[in-house]
Specification:
The chain has 405 residues and is of the alpha+beta class. The protein folds into four domains: 145 residues, NusA, N-terminal domain (N Utilization Substance Protein A, Chain:P, domain 4); 73 residues, OB fold (Dihydrolipoamide Acetyltransferase, E2P); 65 residues, K homology (KH) domain (GMP Synthetase, Chain A, domain 3, 2-Layer Sandwich); 84 residues, GMP Synthetase, Chain A, domain 3 (2-Layer Sandwich). It has twelve helices and 16 strands. The strands form four sheets. Strands 1, 2, 3, 4 and 5 form a five-stranded mixed sheet that branches. A five-stranded mixed beta barrel has the order 6-7-8-10-9. 29% of the residues are buried. Its main location: cytoplasm. This is Transcription termination/antitermination protein NusA.
Length: 405
Amino acid sequence: MTIVNLPGLKNMIDEISQRHNLPKSAVHEALREALLKGYERYRRAQSLEKNQFHDDYFENFDVELDTEEEGFRILSTKKIVEAVSNTDHHISLKEVQEVVSEAQLGDEVVLDVTPDQKEFGRMAAIQTKQVLLQKLRDQQRKLIQEEFQDLESTVLTARVLRFERQAVIMAVQSAFGQPEVEAELPKREQLPNDNYRANATFKVLLKKVREGSHRGPQLIVSRAAAGLVVYLFANEVPEIEEEVVRIVAVSREANPPSRYVGSRTKIAVDTLERDVDPVGACIGARGSRIQAVVNELRGEKIDVIRWSPDPSTYIANALSPARVDEVILTNPDERQALVLVAEDQLSLAIGKEGQNVRLAARLTGWKIDIKDRAIYKADKENQTQDDQSEDHQVNEEVPEEVEIS
């Protein structure tokens, strides 16, 4: 069989594998693809007809690397036909039966179609060098994708490398591809109080692994995702890890619409153990546990509240730290509620620029309207008096019945 010599092939694969921190199998595959691309370009250059080869014309061709003989062969899978119309894809039954008598129409055979060493070797080497680097990058991206695909929505430790426009480019540890893999932290996923100086480390949530070939990091990470808060609490609170305490819901506003409002999170917790205080477990002795989470999030305000199956109780808890006097479920089907608070609790319940009630609504899934209890009661009494006055006026205007005999 014909072979195109590649002196030092085995050593070259070992060297590339070490330099790019890739498995030898990945380097082998990248080299095979690069050589096949080189053969395709060679054939196109030899052809006088520009449109002779369509996009998938060379799909039945393959490259066989031989590390022992330090070379490679071009193989073609051809279909056995009665009359040959394309010698690249077909071979005649008569020709095959001269070698294999039991061959039949429709069968496929693999043939060595390696061009002559002199006319093809030099061009293949040039084309391979041009394509190999890209193929190696593709292999790295493929391995990174396979490695991190199962890690989406998990938390990683990342180190700041540099800045690109408003995004922060960070490095996370990888087993393949490179010792570190680049990840992008977009502007919308950053925290306003973070100081992203070079080499600073942060806990980040892996939000997405990009697929396909494109410029820029494959990994998109976040510091603003609610899942990061869940991880940090699970890491600090053993009762959560042991499933004694469970996190029912999280509502987070890491990047408020106004710069005058700080980042804030509300987290609802519950337990099935009668002797366990889920809120106290998350806060810790002298606030030690929640303080560790707050420090990681650079001072973000966090409200831990008790979840309740009763909507009224749950809504009242969600508006913490405000004290709620009464919750009226005005339209349970549409999940609408009216909350009454004392005058001195009104601004606290609503929060700066509505942040507290906004987070409580997201946490509970209810539309919440907050009113001053005294004003609401007064308005309701006035409305009742007006309704009674109108009824009395109507009764006075009704004429007495006259009996006609």
